[in-house]
């Protein structure tokens, strides 16, 4: 096992890029000691720790209607979610695309999953080494996008998407203390997040009026994201971290087109194959 920390950004269906990257690393039997993963990155992260090549890809890219996890806007009012989170975090791991809990819990890799505490508005870095249900609940919370997914209760606290409070947890990775840090992004080079519009800010205030600190975190998300992106670029230029990011136009965060998603997955796989020797040189240096 290599003593290194890997950061996995979220991005909903943009996460298929990360799936391709990690599938290649698993094929090469690259095992790292620490992961810090966010949102869709958390789904990728747990599959990396359980050593299940292709699982995240299969969960996110398919043509069969029985595997569809989109409620769409018609059911949004009734279900309070655009995505069928029960399908993704219950039926998928326990029935349709079985998750290897035993391998995950036996792994020596420390896997932190980022969530946002709705009461405090701050990021929390959660782990779970024994309880199957709680592990999937933590993944669910980390992936629950604001405004279109309900909050998730974990141990009596309510949580939402980890990307709200810590989209690119590079500082958390540095705190862990490993000299080698790998960052897998799902946005193109030089991407910066635009300021929250007044209309969206109003929606946040209305939807989460009882959680003022969460509202503040959500509205100011772009500023923190851009600061993190600049830090990543700085550290990359200094040769202190290794970054993999898509070099073709990204898919949308709720993309449904099979061919577009497969192309983005293949891009991640092929890019990691191309960068593999350089990555190994970095890790061994």
General description of the model:
The protein has 285 residues and is an alpha/beta fold. Helices cover 46% and strands 14% of the residues. The protein is built from 12 helices and 8 strands. It has helices spanning 15-27, 40-49, 55-60, 76-79, 85-96, 101-106, 132-142, 170-176, 198-207, 212-219, 221-237, 258-284; strands spanning 2-8, 32-38, 110-117, 123-126, 152-154, 157-161, 181-184, 242-244. Strands 1, 2, 3, 4, 5, 6, 7 and 8 form an 8-stranded mixed sheet that branches. Helix 1 packs parallel to helix 2 (40-49) and helix 5 packs antiparallel against helix 7. It is globular. The mean pLDDT is 93.
Task: Write a brief structural summary.
The chain contains 12 helices and 8 strands. The protein has 285 residues and is of the alpha/beta class. Strands 1, 2, 3, 4, 5, 6, 7 and 8 form an 8-stranded mixed beta sheet that branches.
Report the β-strand fraction as a percent range.
5-15%
- The helix fraction, in percent, is 40-55%
Which structural category fits the helices and strands?
alpha/beta
Stretches where pLDDT is under 50 for at least 5 consecutive residues are none
What's the N-to-C terminus distance? 16 Å
Q: Shape from CA axes?
A: globular
List keywords for this structure.
globular; 285 residues; alpha/beta; 14% strand; eight-stranded mixed β-sheet; 46% helix; 12 helices
